Amino acid sequence: MSTTPPPPGHTPAPPVTPPKAVDPQKREITLISHSMLFYWWPIWVLGYIVALVTYAEDHRLAIVPADTRVVVDKGNSDQTHTAYSVVVTNPPTKLLDQAERSTSVPGEGPTFKTRVSQKAWLGPVFCVVLLLTVLITNVPLRGVWSFVVLLLVLVLALGITLVPNGWDNLLAAVGNLHIYINLAGYLFIATTVLVLWVVSVFIFDQRTYMRVTPGHIAICEHIGASIRDIDGSRVELEKKRDDMFRHWLLGFFSGDIVIKLTDSKEEIRLPNVLWIGWRIEQVQRLIREKSTVSS
């Protein structure tokens, strides 16, 4: 067999390379739906802050009977120390027995072991933040109502704090109902909420999601539920109106999504999706696309 040589000056054409297949897995967006526990991070953050303040102050708590009297012992006082005499009815409390033994016997540890802050506002502020977080995460306030409630709470708390001895005078006016939480109380509440928050956000919430690929979505609505595959042509995506306190301040610009199926009028809700305000247009554009895979 003979091969005809190419004419002089002719350059052979390069081989044609078939187009590479487009992997649809490289173009996908996963949206995680979080539980309301995600918004409870201010409780454990503030709990550790006030616990640190209480530890730094290093003030101690003494528990005494109701009719205890404390007088200055001028005979044992000097320029650097002030002596007090504590007069209680018999029998004295166990705490005073331990304090007396620690004072007279070397190596018995601190006289009073329980750390507590003397700041009157520390306990009330922590309780207000805790209760306000529980309220906001369970009672949705969208639009102007959320703004009004948030503004009123901030103005009220700031006004009481700026007034000299504001919290002290307020609590004294309602029957001396001062709120004092010791160091162990702050650490217990903060650590418990932190553990629950970590388990919820990084383990359980990761199993409630929507995965978007071109022209297609896969949804897992509940933990342990089966994954639903839905064609993008059947889907209408809607972002619900924001709750300013929950979505903006506590949720890092999160939002609630409603997925409407046009052929069955069914609605699927995915609450508390992070950064959805920045990704909603990209998600909608990806759903409208049609996935093409070349073999």
Structural descriptors:
single chain, 295 residues, alpha+beta, PH-domain like, 2 domains, 4-stranded antiparallel beta sheet, 3-stranded antiparallel beta sheet, 8 helices, 9 strands, disordered C terminus
Structural overview:
The protein is α+β, with helices and mostly antiparallel strands and 295 residues long. The chain has two domains: 24-34 and 208-288, Pleckstrin-homology domain (PH domain)/Phosphotyrosine-binding domain (PTB) (PH-domain like), CATH 2.30.29.30; 41-201, no CATH class. Helix content is 39%, strand content 16%. It contains eight helices and nine strands. It has helices at 41-57, 94-104, 122-138, 144-162, 166-173, 183-204, 244-250, 276-288, and strands spanning 29-32, 69-72, 84-87, 209-213, 216-220, 228-231, 235-239, 255-261, 266-273. The strands form three sheets. It has a four-stranded antiparallel sheet with strand order 1-4-5-6, covered by helices on one side. The chain has a three-stranded antiparallel sheet with strand order 7-8-9, covered by helices on one side. A two-stranded antiparallel ribbon has the order 2-3. A hairpin with a 4-residue loop joins strand 8 (255-261) and strand 9. Helix 1 (41-57) runs antiparallel to helix 3 and helix 1 (41-57) runs antiparallel to helix 6 (183-204). The longest helix has 22 residues, at 183-204. The chain starts with 28 loop residues before the first strand and ends in a 7-residue tail after the last helix. Residues 19-26 and 291-295 have low confidence and may be disordered.
